[in-house]
Amino acid sequence: MKYQAWYQKHTTSLAGRVAVITGGNSGIGFEAARGLLSLGAEVVLACRNATRALAARERLLAEFPMGTVRVMLLDLASNASIDAFVIEIGKRYEKIDVFLHSAGVYYPRGAETADGLPLTEGVNYHGTVRVAEGVLPLMDGAGKMVFTSSLVDRFGRDRAVRGEGYAAYAKSKHLLSCYVLQRAAARTEKEPAFIAAHPGITATDLLSPEKTTHKPFFSRLGHAFLYLFTHSPEKAALTDILAATKGRNGEFIGPRGLFGISGYPHKTHFCRAVRKRVQKLEK
Ligand SMILES: NC(=O)c1ccc[n+]([C@@H]2O[C@H](COP(=O)([O-])OP(=O)(O)OC[C@H]3O[C@@H](n4cnc5c(N)ncnc54)[C@H](OP(=O)(O)O)[C@@H]3O)[C@@H](O)[C@H]2O)c1
Which of 143, 177, 193, 219 could lock 153 by a disulfide, CB 3.0 to 4.6 Å apart? Predict the structure, then answer.
């Protein structure tokens, strides 16, 4: 593990705590799983694909042989799967301490969720919020409900967009950030802290040709750019780790480097577009 000094200074032990991570088999979610395991948490990988999730579990246990890593199936593109997950996790755990929402899609293959919602918005926003609200009864006032948003939340708007590309992605993250800000304001003392974090930019499988409709040429170009100018998924995951350990209700955490693209995490703020929309909704 890199960044040990940062962990020592900026995080707390999670020994005896349960941390659930959606999309924990890949990219930022996987790196967050490593970080939370290193802090002593029991980790639940909530993933849509059992094979990929079990492979990730093996990799994690190879690095942390004394750790506890469980796998549960969760497809955020299906209300039935989300509801089944909520029931199942309630049977397995009396209490969840950290729920980290990392799963997300960008230019996904396919157009709709099982319930007829546009796919990007359906997974990144509606499905994420549905599972968050579903597991709330398992969390208490000391818990952390962490949402992985994006720098592009400022470019999204709550209006119809065409297709499943950039505009749909920005809209989904805009809605997600608005939800966190609103939910944090309305939080009761018995509920967990609602915290948003964004990872800056990092090269993961998010835009891999296998997963997306992105043109291979642009993907390759995009990845080359990402590798040159941004940080590693391991460092990008530190914003989620900080939120999951020391994050406070209503905070927005992102990398502190130029334009928030890379760097160690710090507390930043919800963008103006998100604040304005929430103010409008609350009038
Ligand atoms: N990479 C960046 O630069 C960046 C920047 C800003 C925000 N983010 C956000 O960071 C989060 C993690 O993305 P990443 O970059 O780590 O990409 P990634 O490696 O592709 O990870 C995305 C994860 O989401 C899972 N997922 C996708 N659709 C799902 C569904 N319907 N149900 C359940 N899980 C689903 C994927 O599962 P499979 O492995 O089975 O596909 C994967 O585990 C996303 O929310 C993304 O929007 C990333």
Answer: 177
Instruction: Pick from 51, 151, 206, 230 the residue to mutate for probing ligand 1's pocket: most ligand atoms within 8 Å of its CB.
Output: 206
Q: Which domain holds residue 257?
A: 4-282
Domain with 174 in it: what CATH number?
3.40.50.720
Residue 188 amino acid letter: T
Residue 123 C-alpha to ligand 1 middle, in angstroms?
10
Ligand 1: does its nearest atom lie under 6 Å from the Cβ of 28? yes
Cα–Cα distance measured from residue 16 to residue 223, given in angstroms and rounded to the nearest whole number: 38
What is the maximal distance between C-alpha atoms in the chain? 52
**Protein residue whose Cα sits closest to atom 4 of ligand 1:** 201
The two structure tokens encoding residue 175: 């809605």
pLDDT tens digits for range 108-161: 988 899 999 999 999 999 999 999 999 999 999 999 999 999 999 999 988 889
Ligand 1 centroid–CA 189 distance in Å is 30
